[in-house]
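Problem 3 from the worked examples.
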Amino acid sequence: MFIAIPLLEIALLIKIGQAIGFWATIAMVIGSAVLGTWLLHKQGMETLRRVLTAMDDGKPPVEPVLQGFLLLSAGLLLLTPGILTDALGLILLIPPVRELIVRYGLKRLFVVTVSGRSRRSGPAADATRPDVFSEAEDTGPRGPAGPETREPRQRSPLGGGPVIEGEFERLEERTIDPRRTKK
């Protein structure tokens, strides 16, 4: 892919150069690079302003950051010489296209808010709530346990499995190896 895209870009530049002329093609490539540079500067400052405004309003700046990332990507694509990268960069400049991409990206996040509380899904679902108990049946090497042995298990705060309770004794540094301890 890293080899195919530049080769395709070169082939397209040659074809367009044959169709509209060498100097027109060079002007188009340089013009898109200038547009990309200007866009990076202008939209970078605008994105920073929107992020700060969202934070001042007490809202998470997720949408302005994603919009800024897409505009940065558009600018970088316009800076890159080539017809395909310029076309993709111009497509990312269209606000409704960016809105669709941002909305799709936000839907893909896995934090769901239900009645004022957030609930995560995935492997670390209960990582932030150590008080969550699992009501699932205990499965071991021999299969599910019967209903008589079914008890809620407390999850580890880090989501790494059940909490194992026990007692411990703190050892001093000089008594770590019991064979070297003098009595």
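Problem 4, a separate protein:
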Amino acid sequence: MGAMIRYLMVILLAVLFIAAVFMLSLQQHRINQQNVVSYFQENLHLHAHHFANQVRNLLGGYHRILETFPSFKSNLVEDMEGLKSDIQTYSRTMKKDYIETISLFDEKGNTIYSTDVSKARLTKVPSQFFIWAKKKENKGKTYVSTLFVPPNFFRLLISVPLYGLAPAGKTDRQDEKYIGALSFSVDLKQFLTQESKYHTSVGHHIWIIDKEGRLLFSSEHPEIVFRNVNQRDETCKRCHISFSYVDRILRENEGTIDYEVKGGPRKFAAFVPLKDGRLSWIVVVNAAYDSLSAITTTNFFRSLLLLGTVTLFFVLSSVYLIYNVRVKSRAEEESRHWQRMNLEKEKAGEARKRSEEQLRYLSSQLLTIQEKERSRISKELHDGLGGALSTVKLRENLLKMNLKEDQAELIKECEGTIRLVDQVMEDVRRLSRDLTPAMLENLGLSASIRWLTNENATGNNMTVTIDMKNVDSLFSQEAKISIYRIFQEAFTNIEKYAQAQNVSIVITEYPEEVSFSIEDDGKGFDLMRVISKDMTKRGLGLTTMEERVRMLGGHFALRSEEGKGTRINFRIPKVMENKG
């Protein structure tokens, strides 16, 4: 009963604590929401200022470029041809990021030169400029005007009047006079589009409105650019609940405002003035409230996550207090169980290891005994059967010599018997060499492999290429015999199963070992299917080769695929032959 009361007290305290944390989370959420809104508005205002400054800096750079032209020497002496040449040279070297055309006009406003004649027709300088330019107080000043050709042609024309002295000899006095104008056509739409990409990537949209209320640029609604914002048709009324925020932007020039659209999220907008000479624009940066709401919602959910974590902690703590003893007892029992299982696995592993070692020992002993038996049989064939056959041949030759010429049938029988004995003697010699190649002791491993290669190439109508160095001094006699046997077994398999036309043998010496490679272009086989077969069904050839390599401390690898031939590769560590 006492334990139950303590348990209920823990639960009650946990519930009170969770309720307190939940209330604090709600309060903190409201505070965070207010802070984020304030920061968001300030951030929008900074973006609007930054964008306005970017435009202002661009125009300021072009103003400074134009203000340098009146100081050209050709301009000072009223040399229009020289000025034209200077402009051509200058236009080739200057950075023209957004400049479309550079045009030169005479004092009557006629175009003397343009870097792009086709575009110059669309970018005519307004007549008001030439009236303004002829006033001497405007010398060295720039004049900015806008040019709109719907649906999407928006250019700024930045112009400067040119004053110069008449060439010597034309007049008695050399007074400065108005001689023409120079104008840049700036593709402001391209600049604004590129700059707005950064803002739209963070969920902000840019507008630019002139003092007459005309929408000059909009990354949000490019289809209504060049329309007056006071021109509000049914299309606009489908989305906008009220246009009071537009009126306020035009009236106040700078500030922040929020507004709503039908079927869309609430929006914030920051707006700042942009003035440059005769230009008077307003730059507006807006963003949807849902991006802001996402931030505050994320923070709120983080608080709820914290609350959930604390709740889970209390629940788990209660469970731990109640079931601690049971869990501990169960863990100890499981630990003892796993210890017994691991001990049994270790014993089974050791037993399997001992069994594998015994099998490998028996296998190596079997191969050793087999090699000795082959040597014994080879010697018996060579010394016993070979000697007997030699005696038979000698007697047949003596019998033939003692026959008379009229005994032609007997002579023919003797000759046939001698030929048969020669054939049997050759078969015995070949069998003896196969069982124990004497040349391995007499000529060495390299020569024996070459002989074996030539014998199989000739007997099986194959083309065999061999690339090897002399490796006789790198192995003991026992190792040489095992390596030779591997090559014998490989050629036996090629002859019986592969039906290969070409065989390649490569023997390469490395600092610590020698690599042997035997590759054919025969039928190949499904390696996985052969390996998965029962030992009694798949034969001992491959197994014997692999076991011989293992006995020499080497590594055996086999690759084969049906229709793509077979490659055997094995590496044997060097064991220098004892010459003493």
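Solution to problem 4. The CA atoms of residues 215 and 225 lie 5 Å apart. The two ends are 94 Å apart (CA to CA).
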